[in-house]
Design brief:
245 residues, mainly beta, Porin, twelve-stranded antiparallel beta barrel, 13 strands, globular
Length: 245
């Protein structure tokens, strides 16, 4: 009996130590905005995002290089519930990281291309035209570690240039985000996004908050709250699985 208890205790301790070593990973996204980090070469990531009215967005990413990944996304409105599912056209995802900075000045810089807005809000003018949807489009992301309370956090800021169906320069927007690990397994995130370059339409700006649990650096479960000043609160759930080939 003592051997069984000792064996179980050893397994639990090893799992905790492994989680401690792997839990504080560099996430490739904040709540609803990108960081400048990438996934490793030969790795893959699957993401499932559940949003209002039973909608789901599925993403798959593959790390082709330590500084490059490609992926696709598929948004399915009304995936759950009694309403008829409405699949939207797939989108393309890509990110290239240029640098992680220097030892004296660690800073990561990347450019990327993101997929469509999810759900009904992504549709413009003619909701029956499957191609008439807004895309997040190209972006520039900068992420830098900061050190508060003798621990490491990450600040990200960047610029997005939404495209499709029409390019509207006035829709260029900024974002600012903070990723704050609480311990080896839990972290909180907060961000301020969709701030237009001319600071117009403050009612469309978003203030988001999320809390994430990561197990063994492979499974991540995240609950997010997206608050738009003129449209109220939207609650979403994200599940991610990360591994290597």
């Amino acid at each position: 009996m003592k051997k069984i208890i000792l064996s179980v205790s050893t397994i639990i301790i090893n799992l905790v130590l492994i989680s401690s070593a792997l839990g504080q990973t560099r996430n490739i996204s904040n709540v609803d905005t990108p960081t400048a980090f990438t996934i490793g070469k030969g790795t893959y990531l699957f993401s499932l995002l559940g949003y209002d009215n039973g909608g789901m967005e599925i993403k798959g990413l593959i790390g082709l290089h330590e500084n490059l990944y490609l992926g696709v996304s598929l948004d399915l409105q009304n995936a759950l519930g009694k309403d008829k599912p409405q699949p939207n056209i797939p989108g393309v995802i890509a990110r290239i990281k240029f640098t992680d900075g220097w030892e004296s000045w660690p800073i990561s810089i990347a450019i990327g291309y993101d997929s469509f807005f999810i759900g009904q809000q992504g549709k413009r003018d003619n909701p029956h035209n499957s191609l008439n949807r807004m895309m997040y489009g190209p972006y520039l992301a900068i992420t830098k570690p900061i050190y508060l309370f003798d621990d490491e956090q990450y600040v990200s800021y960047g610029v997005r240039l939404p495209t499709q169906p029409d390019f509207v320069p006035d829709d260029t927007s900024y974002y600012l985000a903070l990723d704050f690990p609480l311990n080896e397994l839990f972290r909180v995130k907060t961000e301020f996004e969709r701030v237009y370059w001319s600071f117009r339409d403050p009612g469309e700006w978003l203030m988001n908050f999320g809390i994430r649990y990561t197990y063994m650096d492979q499974l991540g479960i995240e609950f997010d709250i997206l608050y738009q000043f003129n449209d109220g609160v939207n609650r979403v759930l994200r599940i991610e699985y990360y591994d290597r080939f």
